[in-house]
Structure formats: structure tokens, C-alpha cells
Records
---
Amino acid sequence: MNALSFPNTSSPGVSGSALSLATSAVAVAAPYPAQDAELGSRGMPGEGGLVAAFTCVAESAADIASRDALLDRAMSPNWRRKSSEKIRRGRRPAEGLAFVARDADGSVVGTVRLWNVAIGDEGRSALLLGPLAVAPSLKGAGIGSALMEHAVGEARRLGHGAIVLVGDAPYYARFGFSAEKTGTLAMPGPFEPHRLLALELRPGALTGAGGTLRPSGRKVRVAAGVTAAA
């Protein structure tokens, strides 16, 4: 397995060229400086000095139960009632854009997924990022930042134009996200407009876009009354 070190995540911006393919494992020994912890989609004060070894890899079907349990611990079961879930429910993540972080024992300690969405009546294509979560015991170890950089880099490599998310601007600004082009966008349910952020992967991808985000990705397969894991 080829190892690749992520850049110091306290620096703004994302370099897609330094990221591995989604199907490749990226080994990260992370003696990161103090930085924000990841608790769901919100940045919280970190605990500096924490060191962790982990890999960012493509999510597999076998990770579903562990990922959901991690989200329950990091965000509480209420994450299933967020407005973003109205877009994700019954859909599969965007092709090649669901990732987990594993610790040295192979346990899932972080997760991030991106979803295909259409914006307003025009139906302009974009991606919705979330949930992003890291095991509470590993907050401050750089796992959330590594997952973000890996996910954004892969979305750019696959040719997507823009990513939208709901989160805290001070945290996500380091990855290039802002509310500059989301004033005319809306979520399908209650949301805080100042927390609706976007990153253009192609310049002008969101120029003139407006309306409510709606799901446009692959639907979850249903066979014999059983819903397949997304």
C-alpha cells in the first residue's frame, strides 16, 4: 500500500493533486497540532497533541452498521431528523464518494459521504456533503480534516462542479467553503441560512443558481420488501 501524508490541515484550501484515488488506502500518521475536533458537522474546540494512525478508504457495505453507530455516538440519533436527511433518505451516495477512516485495528473511526443533488427548477447538478463525523475519543487527531480533503479531492478528480454542506463557517472555511454563493439556495426543511456553505470545484459552477436542493442520485434498491443498505 502506497503511503501518502496529508498536508497540515490548519492551512486553508485543498490540493486535489496530492490525494490518492478513492479505491486506494492512504496511510496517515498524524502528529497534528491543535485543531478543531469533529463532532458531526460542527467544529468544536480540539484537544491538541493527540496522535493517531488511520487510513482513509472507500466505504464498503460491511461498514454500514459501524458507520451508523459512529454517527449515533458523535451526533446523537437526532442526526436522522436533520433537513439534510430528507435529501439523503432513500438514495445512495454519489458514485465513488463515500469514505471511512479506519484506525490501526481496522475499526471505523470516521465517516464522510457526498450525495448527488439538483438545485431548484433549473436542476443544476451539485454534491451535498455529509454527515461528517469522527469518533469522539479521537477528536483533535486530524481525522475529520483528512476525510474532508480526501473527499473534496476525489469530487474534483471525478469532475463535479460544486459541493454544498450545512456546517459552521469558521471550521469549513479552511477547505474553501463559504456562504458567498448560497444566498439563493435553500434546504428542504428548517435550516440556518448562515450555515449553508458551498465550494465551487469549477469556477462559476454556482453562478446564478437558486432554489431548493433536491435529491438526484441513485435510489436505494428494494428487493422482496427489504431495503438495501445505501
Note: Residues 143-157 form the longest helix (15 residues).
---
Amino acid sequence: MTDKEYQEDIYCIGCGAVLQSDDENKLGYVPQAALSKAEEEAVYCKRCFRLRHYNEVQDIELSDDDFLNMLHELSSQDALIVNMVDIFDFNGSVISGIQRFAGNNPLVIVGNKVDLLPKSLKQSKMRQWITEQCHLVGLRPQSVYLISALNKDSVSELMQSLEKERRGKDVYIVGTTNVGKSTLVNQIISIATDEDNTVTTSYFPGTTLGKIEIPLDDEKVLVDTPGIIQPAQLSYYLPPKDIKAVTPRKEIKPKSYQLNEGQTVFLAGLARFDYLKGEGKQSFVLYAANDLYIHRTKTEKADELYNTQKGALLNPPSHPDSLPELKRYEFTLNEPSDIVFSGLGWVSVENAGTKVAAWAPKGVDVVVRKKLI
């Protein structure tokens, strides 16, 4: 065996994660130069270093095994469990099994990115819709909150509510990657400190699995956990450049398309929506990032267009060969519904009895849900 195979693991002194230099999105990442020094001196991983010197928490990804270990740990804690979800991608970001792993602990759902949805959508209706969707996947949250993690006042109001909800318990924040969890935690740190008070890892100590503990006033802690990977989300298959292109940054402007039977709408080269059969010409409303390229064509020409223009006219993907082939799903709708492409957006269909097909990269969830807007 080589010396490398005999080498013992080296741990971050801030969070206890095993140090590695292969993937900066994984636990314990440090540049190779720092890892080489770690055998001789104590080293912080990049996440702890950013927290120690810049008061900044960076989200990182859990492996499947680490994720399961963390979930099993929740049931043994006396804590309020906060599942943070992306309102724009609720179905892709909600952790459906969290109720079982929470045990007897109370569960709260926090919907982030409320600022992305049209202002015409009332928050009371949004909360009711989220509650109904939670019940469909077996969750029974004691409360549902809507926030924008980018807004300090919004986060302050949430913290006041959670203070009442926790009833002297610790608070565990869990969520998938890209829901804005690290943005929320950074806002909490900003609210809890002032510019002259430097946050250090001794004040916010980490534990195994890269968790970071933020002390509360009664000697309890708010625990930030690493982001959980959801392979059913589109972002799992995209490079950072493409993720940026499909992620909404401001209020979504709905786009209405009048389609005849046998017409198709492409959402760049990442998804496709076919109107197969219905009551003649219909209006379909698309909710996606405002700058996402949309292309309409005849369904009979859609396959050829996709094969010749993926990555060119239909861009993103910027690296078409790395994207899984599109998988087709067919639906006949019984009520006004949304056809959701996880991590990308949705198409709203008003008329019952309409028959449509939706295409997304193989592995990405496509679901039908009760119409949100």
C-alpha cells in the first residue's frame, strides 16, 4: 500500500469535517496548499474560514450518508425543526420525509423567495397553498411563514416568531441546496452582531457534519445544517453559469402564450411543453426567470429543432452533451393546474380536460399540482 493509503484523516478545527481539496461544494474543503500544511498546523475549512473572518456562512452539500445521519440525529434532539423551502420550487425543495425524522419535535415550514412571486398573489393564499401541499406529502407543520431572506426586516419578523414557536428549545434549520438557507443564516448573524463585533468560530462553534451553532439568549442554539442535495432538481445537472441563468433574481413577470393544438413551447433547451388536445386555442401562462429564452414551434417540428439547436438557439444548456436526454410525461388535467419543472418554473393550465405533454432532462421531476396563481 502507498503512504497516501495509510494517511489518517485530518479534521477542520472549526466544524470537525474531514478536510479535502477535491470539491469546494463538499464538506471540509480547503485549497491544496492549505491541506498540505494541515499535518503540521491546525487548519479551518473554507466554510469556517469565511465565517471566522467575514461573518459569512456558505452553504455546502451533504452526501447521502451524511444526510441520513443528520436526519436520524434530529429525532434525538429536543428542538424546533425548521424546513426552509424555495417558494418558487416548492415541490423540489420540500423534504418530504422530514416529519418522520423529526420524531416528536415540532415542525415549521419557512417559504423563502416570496419576493419573486407576483405581488398580486396574497400571502394568506400562499400560506394556505403551502399548507395543502405539505399535507399531500405527509407533513403537518405547526406553522408556515413566508420570507425574503434578502430582506433584513423580513428575517427579523421571522426570528421573533420562531422565538415564540421554539418554547425554550434549540432550533435546527434544514433545507436543500439553493433555497437561500445560507442567506438566511447570514442575515441572522448580521442582526445579532454589529459592525464592530467580529464573529468567530469560537462564538459560533461548529460540530460534526459541518453544522454551525449560533447561541441564543437562553443558552440554547440555532443550528445551521449543510444543504441537502436533491437530484430531482434541475440545478443538480447544470454548471454554475446555467444555474445563474435559470434562477430568478427579481419578481417574475408571467408570460402568456396562445397555443393551438399541436404547438410546443421550449423553455430554452432545458424543458418543453406540448399542447396536445383541448378546447381549441388556449392561453397558457409561463412562470420562469424573466430572461429565460422561450421558443414556440409546431410540435411536429419540435424534435428536429431540439436536436439541431440545443445549446445554440436553445440555450442554456451551455454544455448540451452533459445534460441528460429529455423524458416525456403526458397529462390529462382534471382541474386548473400547474405543470412544474423542478428548479426551472411551471406552466399554468386553466381548462379542465386539457391534454398536454411535458419534457424535462431525465431525473428531473415533472409534477402536476393545484394551480398556485
Note: The chain has three domains: 3-54, 61-230, 235-370.
---
Amino acid sequence: MMNLSLNGKTSVVCGSTQGIGKATALELAELGSNVVLVARNESKLKAVLAELSTNENQEHSYIVADFSQPDSLKKLLDQWISDGGNCHILVNNTGGPKGGPIKDAEVVEFYDAFTQHLICNHILVQALYPLMKANGYGRIINVISTSVKQPLPNLGVSNTIRAAVANWSKTLSVELAPFNITVNNVLPGATNTVRLQAIAEAKSEKTNESVDTIFAEMAAESPMGRIAEPEETASVIAFLASPAASYVNGINVPVDGGRTKSL
């Protein structure tokens, strides 16, 4: 019988006040995990905290952190661990950089995206993997993009940084596997989130197409003819976080309805 129970586990979920991050936090709590929400808006964190299931008598909490300030993130994590924080599961999830052709991107856009994605991911892993090692159970799941398989038009900075995270993750998966810690990437396609809305609105301004038309075009790119809901990606993340995925390591899992043309 497939074991999806996360009773007794603690999950740290980044970017957990909206979209895929929030859906993931809710799903992991439903499976019995204690959830530590991480985001920069405390009022939104409190709102999500109130929505998390406590059916298994879990204790949920949150950390207010801004990923544009990696030094502050490290201090917050060090203090949280010193205060007794524990972790079995880490979901690295951060909103992507703004869209646009790579030829027009400012250098600072690469620095900022590299900091908020790869550098902060690395800080989180370095702080939390010793806890996973001590627990004899670890799952690190990075929410990135199908662009690591097939670069997406007008997302030049994102395409670049996501690829860096994917290769960092693959390298990490080899190093941490002996400690029963797996590292995997989930690659969402077009998903009904605030970020997708922002991308559609930016394109609308440039092309004079309506946002609804742009969403319809995005949906048509998938063989399934629709845009995903955040909960559909969250379900895949939850599986990778579970005991059932104990021998799944170092892979990219697209959740895009078949849009990506490569295997």
C-alpha cells in the first residue's frame, strides 16, 4: 500500500502565501505534516496559517523572510534552528523574475534572480540538510520551470536562472543521497497564479491583445487545452515529499499537460 503519510514530519515551504507554494502547504498539512511557512508578508502568512489542517494535531508556524536579503535569511534560519526548529522536507519556491527578451535584460536582473533563487535555495539547504540527516529522512523539492528542458519565449532571465538551479539540484542529489535525502525538481507549465496573470498583462500591454485572449493562447499550447491549477502541481510535490517517493532522486518532473516537446 502506497505510503503518503507525513505524520510526524515537518515541512518548510517557501513562497507559501499564494499560488503553488500555498497549495503545497495546504496539501502537506492535509497529509499530516507540520508546516513552516516562509514568505515576506506577515499578514498573508498569518492568513494561510489559519487555513492549514490540524487533523493530526500538527503545530504550524511561519518565518518572515525576504529572499532579496540572503544574509538576513541565513540569520533567521540560524535563530530558528537554535530555537528548536526541525525539518524533514524543504520546498524551494520563489516567484520568477519579470519577463522580457534576454537581449534587453539589465545585468542587475540576473544578479537579483540568481540571489533570490539559487543563492537563497543554497542557504536553505545548507541550514536544513543537517536536520534531515539527523532525522534519517530528507526531501528537497525545487519548484522551477519547464524552461530547463525547453527555453520559453520572452522569459530570458528566468530561462537562465532556472537552468542554473536545475544543475545545482542534480549535483546536490548525488551528494545527499547517502543520507536518505532526495533532491528533485518540479517543472510547472502555465499555471493559474498571480505570476501568470502578470506575464499575461505585460504581454497584453505590448501586443494590445486582451488578457483573456492571451490566456486562451497559453491554454492552447498544452495538448490538454487548459491551464493548470496550483493544486495539480502541489499534488506532485506532495508525492515527492512522501515515503512513497523514497527512491526517486535527481529528476525533473514536468507538470505541464504535455506541453514540453522533449522527454
Note: The mean pLDDT is 95.
---
Amino acid sequence: MKILIVGGGGIGERHLRCFLDTGQVQVSLCEAEEERVKALKEKYQLEETYTDFTTVPLAQYQGVVIATPAHLHIPMAMECAKSGVPFLLEKPLSVNLEGVDELLELIQRQGVTCGVGYMRRSLPSFKKLKELVESGMAGKIKMGRFNSSQDYRKYRPDYQQTYYAKAAEGGGCILDAASHTLNLAQWYFGEVQDVMAMSDRLVFEGVEAEDSAIILIRFADGSLVEVFCNQFQKPNTTEIELIGTKGNLKYIAEGQEHKIFFCKDDSNLWQELANYRVGRDTYYLAQAQDFLAAIRGEREFPTSLLEGKRTLMIALLAKKRGNNCEQ
């Protein structure tokens, strides 16, 4: 199977590496910066390289992964859909809703396999948490707390020179890290009824958007959820607590160990239910396998474009209602 990666930045390179690691594909690259293309050709086995997306013979590929800044996602996805080529869009779906419905109509008309890259839905650990929710062991889940926070500057020291620094290209923690968490919350809780938020640029310099946000969501069934995110704190935190009528489920990432616990009474004794080892590439490798399986028609991709649109709508509403950044 021939796969094209569009965008050779940090995330694009990870997609490139992980698709190659599946051992199932030949990988080509489209990247505008020639020096980056040269560096990646020396590092990986690439079949073809392009520096201009408009020159790519899309019909030659069985799948395209679009890992460019989010403001370019919809136009590139439209070209893939017109060519009938399956595609995977990095999150978020876009930076606004312009062209989204037209893309949804086109993929339905063309019958194109596609999805949005919320890779946590591909991980066995997050799927296990969903299974536990649906099992009813915690009763009816009525509240949730999600915390996804880290020092983004450590992992992307060049953040001031990337899309992150520019609001028009999808910068800021809400469309970046918090978008993943919003998507998970939707997966566990369902349809959203209302959103409230506070956000600000508390620490970062040289960027146009927020580095911190607290988002409150009421879901259609009345459940209440808090999504907490900052991108300057020193600990790398991933924590989820789902609060039910029969007990609480808790998901905690401790380095590469991801654990799920359950507590059913006021003894405050937490029973460990599951333990997974998760590396930085584990997410992307699992997602690559899901995309290849979707192309082969074996199963649907975990996050559809319609679900990606719903996540984007929540994120945009949170940005609108919570923004306290200087313009």
C-alpha cells in the first residue's frame, strides 16, 4: 500500500516513522521546505518526495495523511476527496467551520474513507476505560474531570516559529492539547449541550493565543465535565476521573505506565483494574494501523469527520467564550 505524508514537521515525521514501522506500506513525503525533505530522505526510506502539494499525483496513493498546519487541512482534504483517495487529517479538523460542511457532503457523495487524528481513541488503554464506563460498574457517569497539562516548550522548543504561535493557523492550547481531551470527553459522555470557559496566555511569550484553559461542559444527559489544560507546568500530567453513581473510575499516566483504577466506597481504596505501557510512538503506531485497516474496509476509523467537526465546534466556542488574551 502506498501512503503519502503531507507535512514533514515534528508530527509529520512521527507519522512517517510509524507508518513505516507497521511494515505494511511504502511511504512518500510532500514537504515545502527542501532542506527538511533532504534531512528526512537521509533518515528514512522514502519512495517519492514532493515540495508542492498541487503537483502530487494523488490517484497513485491508497492513503494520504495531512499533517500540515490546521488552516490548510480542508483545502487539502477536498483535493483528496475529489480524487477518491482515503485521507487522515491531523487534529484539529480546521481553525474554523469554513468549508467543513462542503467537505462532509463531498466525502459522503464520493464514499471516501477518512478520519481525524484523535489518536487516543486508537489506544487500548483509553478503549478499556470506555468499556468500563459502558459496563455499568461505576453506575451512571454523572461528572468528569480531565487534566492534560505539560511544559510544551520542552517537547517543541521551536514553538514560537511553528503554527502554535499563530492564532490563524490553530495555535493555542485549546485547539492543540485540549482538543484531544475534548474529543475524549465527547467519546465518553456523548452530545454536548453547553460550554463555558476561561482561557489566557499566562506564561508563554511570542505567541498570539492562550497557553491555559479551563473548560466546563454540560452534556445532553445532564452530565457535567471540567477540562483543565495548561502548557507551561513542569509535571507532565494526564489524569481522568469519571464519577458515577456506584463509584469512580480513574485513569492516570505515570511516565510510560497508564493505569486505570476503581473506587466504590468511602474507604478510598483504589483497585487497579488495568495497566498499559505506552511510549510516545505507541499512539501514532496504533492510529496508523487503524487507518490502514479502514482503507482495507476491515473497520471504521475511530474518529469520523463529523465527530471531528463536533469537537471543533466545542473548541471554537470555548475559545470565543474564554479568551482573555491581548490582541
Note: The mean pLDDT is 96.
